[in-house]
Amino acid sequence: MELKRERVREHLLAVIDGRRPGDAIPSERTLCATLGVSRPTLRAAVDELVATGALVREHGRGMFVAPVKITQELVAEDHAAGAPPSRGSWTSTVLAFRTVRAGARIGRKLTVSPAAELLYVARLRRVDGAPIALEHLHIPAELVPGLTPADMERGFYAHLREKCGIRTARAVQSIEPTVLSEEEATLLDVPVLSPALLFDRITSDSTGRPVEYVRSLYRGDRYRIVSRLALTDGAPDHPEPDVSRTGAWWGTVE
Question: 162, 164, 158: which is closest to 145 by C-alpha?
Fold first, then answer.
């Protein structure tokens, strides 16, 4: 199974990556013809990228790459953030499991060649039986020989540690608001355009090698992020992005 909006979104992000802030992207008609999708499908993906600040839509002019976002670091580079498990029993159902080429954008994230083989996995995460999140994972295929859908349903990190000898040590993750498409809302059992949290994460092992790139959608009505920060006395009101802070964050499902 492949969600159409995910394919359209990845194409649009590749287009954005190849342009500068303020540059125009192809028209809806051109993009629909290139991707072989309907305008409603394209607009759903565009609406998400507009909502998350990647694109700007100007009436009568078209769509443009958005200005660069202002970023503030909440966790210091050298701080090992803890992530206590959330309440409830987590289970997974694999929706897609296949080998794909990395392509330029995801290849850069995983520091592999665009032609490198990746394992693409889509899975639905549940807590106490209720659908909570939809995950899209890309994993260098050479790292996980013999990985099966059943392994992904039992626990990916446990498989990496116990079967592949890989210990995850670090992750860089961004979190942004978005809304759910019809397909996504159906899988997560919520109304179309319901609010959601978009997680974008690259996880590395103890040597600094990227071992996965994950894009996840979490239901906005069931998930929240709590941050605990230890702030230095006398810190400026508006610190620069590289100002060192210590703290830890984790997600809670309620």
Answer: 164
- Please answer whether residues 224 and 254 qualify as being in contact, where contact means their C-beta atoms are separated by less than 8 angstroms: yes
* Tens-digit pLDDT profile for residues 145-188: 999 999 999 888 888 999 999 999 999 999 988 999 999 999 99
User: What would the DSSP string read from start to end of the chain?
Assistant: ---HHHHHHHHHHHHHHTS-TT-B---HHHHHHHHT--HHHHHHHHHHHHHTTSEEEETTTEEEEPPPPP----S-TT-----PPPSS-EEEEEEEEEEEE-HHHHHHHHTS-TT-EEEEEEEEEEETTEEEEEEEEEEEGGGSTT--HHHHHH-HHHHHHHHS---EEEEEEEEEEEE--HHHHHHHTS-TT-EEEEEEEEEEETTS-EEEEEEEEEETTTEEEEEEEEPPTT--SS--TT---EEEEEEEE-
Q: CB-hemisphere CA count at 13 Å for 166?
A: 21
Give pLDDT tens digits for 25-52: 999 999 999 999 999 999 989 988 988 8
Q: Are strands 55-58 and 62-65 parallel, antiparallel or unpaired?
A: antiparallel
What is the Cα–Cα distance from 206 to 81, expressed in whole angstroms? 15
The per-residue pLDDT for range 218-246, each reduced to its tens digit, is 998 888 777 766 666 655 554 444 433 33
In terms of Cα–Cα distance, which of 162, 90, 78 is closest to 125?
90
